[in-house]
Amino acid sequence: MKLITFEGIEGVGKSTQITLVKAWLEDRGYSVKLLREPGSTDFGEKIRELLLSNNSDISFETELLLMFAARSEMIRLHLEKPSEDFILCDRYYHASIAYQGYGRELSLDFIDSLVLGTKCPRPDLTILYDLDVQTGFKRKTNDVKDRIESSGLEFFERVRSGYITLSQSLPEVHLINADA
């Protein structure tokens, strides 16, 4: 099994690209499972609702821990004994580093300990789509922003900076300019 993860700020086109990659692989006879974070399990989808709800008044630390709770279940149910040739995941632990570490300014060491503690398998490839924040905001077509999307320009500038740092320090992370 090969694990490929897709990362980037809002509006970079991750969802479109992951769908295209899935179709391309399946056309070549590979079995493919598509996952998303948070989500991909009953438990994960409930956490997703809590995390994205504009009615949720939770701390940044709680947000981080809920992300890892959902991720832990996804790993247990989908990554520990996969039967597919490829698993494509819309966000993974790199998102927690970028969003909660850089964006929310939580401890990167603590996030690293959660990655180790939840036994997150390292992806074979992480495709990071990069785009300036203003363009990403303009591309988002839905009028109603969820709790995280409503975090503001400065937050997303920090997230983008975190992603760029990851692409420079982790060999599995490959940055692609999404400004096309």
Automatic annotation (TrEMBL):
Group of enzyme by EC: transferase
Pfam families according to UniProt: Thymidylate_kin (PF02223)
UniProt KW keywords: ATP-binding, Kinase, Nucleotide biosynthesis, Nucleotide-binding, Transferase
Entry EC number(s): 2.7.4.9
Name under which the protein is recorded: Thymidylate kinase
Species: SAR86 cluster bacterium BACL1 MAG-120820-bin45
InterPro entries recorded: P-loop_NTPase, Thymidylate_kin-like_dom, Thymidylate_kinase
Catalytic activity: dTMP + ATP = dTDP + ADP
GO CC aspect terms: cytosol
Coiled coil: none
Molecular functions per Gene Ontology: ATP binding; dTMP kinase activity
